[in-house]
Design the sequence.
């Protein structure tokens, strides 16, 4: 089961009223040029609303509705020309009768060709003043004329230079026209074309502007501005206002930030968009209903007759979402009836949406795409677990609760995962107190007697063990209990106290492996934490007493933490701790040299070349480090490291002499 993230005409978000309102507004004012903005964050459903608008306009014979996606043209051609040409081309294709108006069509495409050539005119005119156009510029002009040489480089020879210059001057003559006059002529011919086509209203839908690079977004909006005063033409622009404002600031960097109480970027957008519609975020009831519809639709298929009935009834139930309701068990039974084998999956979908809907809605700020991405990740991980034969004890609801923490409260998830990975039973024992609430005993976290099965036995044993632990001050638990997000998460069912979380963490290790060397530190975790501190705060007392195996585990724990960073321009935390550890444990010198070679030399600062002498004391280690340092001094990819390594080698040479 997979939830496809494409624009759709199947309205699960009850956005049909927005589309219908936009269509009604345009139909009521067909002769007036109009620009409507459909605004919303990335993934809010803008593209789907455009699909609904296009679908509704398909029933009106006197209206032509076209769609343009600037993102698809990005990098291939000028976005402004692409939009203008795309509108005219699609108009001719949708109205075959225009083929009879041959001259009118030919004239307007001639205007477009003029605009294409005019893009190059400025640079060519500069070279023409000297009479010596460059081969590249000659190619731009001559490549558009079939009767001239195919190889423009040959035209720049001494023999043909004069003829080429004269040809360039002749071709530049058309661009002596004033651009405003040419644009005004295009508008008049476009008006005439609409009348000949018998079109009462032309509606252009522009999508994915907020995915475009700033220049492409601005070029597209500038093309829209060309039609602002063209009668019977309307635009519906779907875009995130924040991204468009960013594009304006990047495209016009010299503009001041603001003028009076408003900034220029906002003013630019408001001059183009006459009527803004903003898509509202989903609330708790709407999120639960959306999750249920997504999962039920994925199980039954969008074409299932019962599912279509369910959508209609869900819309009725969501007319007044502030009163509660939404998609519940009674509505599912009424709309779907007896589904046989599929009944269990439908009930599971409702249960899951009830459990995760509120927190998922708040965590994603009611963004449909983020909700869908979360559900896809959940379903994929569940599918992977079943393929790995994790057994019946692996529960979707437990995985979902952990993933909510992973996605929206990452610090909580990291601590829960770390505790569970290091526990012999895979249990996070702090969760017992957290889920029971302030002042309750850990045993109160789960007051129901487990049923049968290994998983239930493990859960019971883990809960009893958690209850038997003596009460003590726990700073981490104290922080959890005053964090509203954490306490709201803890209230979600099912309870995780006493649950072996290792299968779920194993599935979630796409970002971090919780079962590596760090997870086996146990009582040595405090030593690793201490060695990650600044050098002045590190206590070396006791490091010499570590057994070789313990010292190796501590080294690996520090190394993993250092390598998890992606910025090595400044010395990372833990490097000084490694030096102090290896100084106290000389057998680790080869490990330290392996670590030094593992560091990305092209991305490290000059610190990498110095500071290792206290730890690298054996002759073989000194010789190996000298070879590494010599390699840094000879490379050219990192000048700062090269200079530092060279200076270090010079000091050693001077000391020997």
Sequence:
């Amino acid at each position: 089961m997979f939830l496809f993230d494409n624009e759709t005409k199947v309205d699960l978000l009850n956005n049909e009223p927005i589309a219908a309102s936009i269509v009604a507004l345009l139909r009521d004012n067909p002769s007036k040029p109009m620009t409507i903005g459909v605004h919303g964050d990335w993934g809010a459903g803008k593209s789907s609303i455009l699909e609904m608008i296009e679908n509704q306009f398909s029933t009106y014979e006197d209206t032509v509705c076209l769609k343009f996606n600037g993102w698809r043209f990005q990098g291939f051609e000028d976005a402004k020309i692409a939009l203008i040409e795309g509108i005219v081309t699609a108009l001719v294709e949708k109205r075959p009768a225009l083929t009879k108006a041959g001259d009118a069509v030919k004239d307007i495409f001639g205007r477009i060709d003029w605009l294409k050539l005019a893009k190059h005119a400025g640079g060519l005119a500069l070279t023409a003043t000297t009479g010596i156009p460059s081969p590249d510029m000659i190619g731009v002009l001559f490549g558009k004329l079939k009767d001239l040489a195919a190889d423009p480089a040959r035209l720049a020879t001494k023999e043909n230079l004069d003829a080429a210059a004269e040809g360039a001057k002749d071709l530049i003559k058309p661009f002596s026209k004033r651009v405003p006059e040419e644009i005004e002529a295009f508008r008049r011919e476009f008006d005439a074309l609409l009348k000949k086509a018998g079109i009462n209203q032309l509606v252009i839908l522009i999508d994915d502007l907020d995915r475009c690079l700033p220049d492409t977004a601005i070029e597209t909006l500038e093309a829209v501005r060309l039609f602002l005063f063209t009668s019977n033409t309307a635009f519906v622009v779907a875009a995130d206002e924040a991204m468009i404002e960013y594009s304006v600031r990047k495209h016009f960097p010299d503009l001041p930030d603001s003028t009076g109480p408003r900034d220029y970027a906002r003013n630019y957008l408001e001059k183009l968009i006459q009527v803004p519609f903003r898509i509202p975020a989903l609330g708790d009831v709407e999120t639960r209903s959306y999750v249920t519809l997504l999962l039920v639709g994925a199980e039954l298929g969008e074409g299932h007759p019962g599912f279509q009935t369910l959508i209609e009834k869900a819309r009725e139930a969501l007319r007044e979402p502030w009163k509660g309701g939404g998609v519940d068990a009674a509505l599912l039974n009424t709309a779907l009836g007896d589904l046989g084998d599929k009944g269990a999956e439908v009930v599971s979908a409702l249960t899951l949406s009830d459990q995760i809907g509120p927190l998922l809605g708040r965590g994603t700020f009611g963004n449909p795409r983020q909700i869908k991405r979360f559900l896809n990740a959940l379903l994929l991980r569940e599918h992977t677990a079943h393929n790995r034969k994790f057994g019946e004890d692996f529960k979707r609801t437990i995985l979902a609760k952990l993933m909510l923490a992973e996605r929206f409260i990452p610090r909580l998830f990291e601590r829960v995962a770390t505790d569970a990975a290091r526990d012999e039973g895979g249990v996070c024992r702090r969760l017992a107190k957290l889920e029971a609430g302030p002042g309750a005993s850990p045993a109160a976290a789960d007051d129901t007697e487990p049923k049968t099965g290994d998983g239930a036995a493990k859960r019971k044993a883990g809960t009893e063990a958690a209850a038997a632990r003596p009460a003590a001050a726990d700073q981490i638990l104290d922080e959890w209990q005053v964090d509203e997000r954490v306490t709201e998460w803890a209230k979600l069912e099912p309870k995780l106290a006493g649950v072996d979380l290792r299968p779920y963490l194993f599935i979630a290790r796409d970002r971090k492996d919780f079962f590596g060397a760090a997870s086996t530190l146990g009582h040595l975790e405090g030593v690793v934490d201490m060695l990650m501190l600044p050098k002045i705060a590190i206590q070396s007392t006791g490091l010499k007493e570590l057994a070789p195996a313990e010292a190796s585990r501590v080294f690996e724990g520090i190394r993993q933490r250092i390598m998890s960073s992606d910025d090595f321009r400044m010395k990372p935390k833990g490097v000084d701790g490694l030096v102090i550890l290896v100084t106290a444990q000389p057998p680790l010198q080869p490990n330290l040299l392996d670590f030094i070679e593992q560091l990305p030399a092209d991305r490290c600062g000059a610190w990498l070349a110095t500071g290792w002498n206290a730890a690298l004391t054996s002759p073989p280690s000194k010789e190996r480090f000298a070879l590494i340092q010599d390699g840094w001094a000879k490379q050219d990819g990192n000048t700062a490291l090269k200079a530092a390594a060279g200076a270090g080698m010079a000091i050693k040479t001077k000391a020997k002499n």
Q: What stands out?
A: The first helix runs from residue 16 to 28. Residues 517-656 form one domain. The first strand starts at residue 34 and ends at 39. The chain has a mean pLDDT of 77.
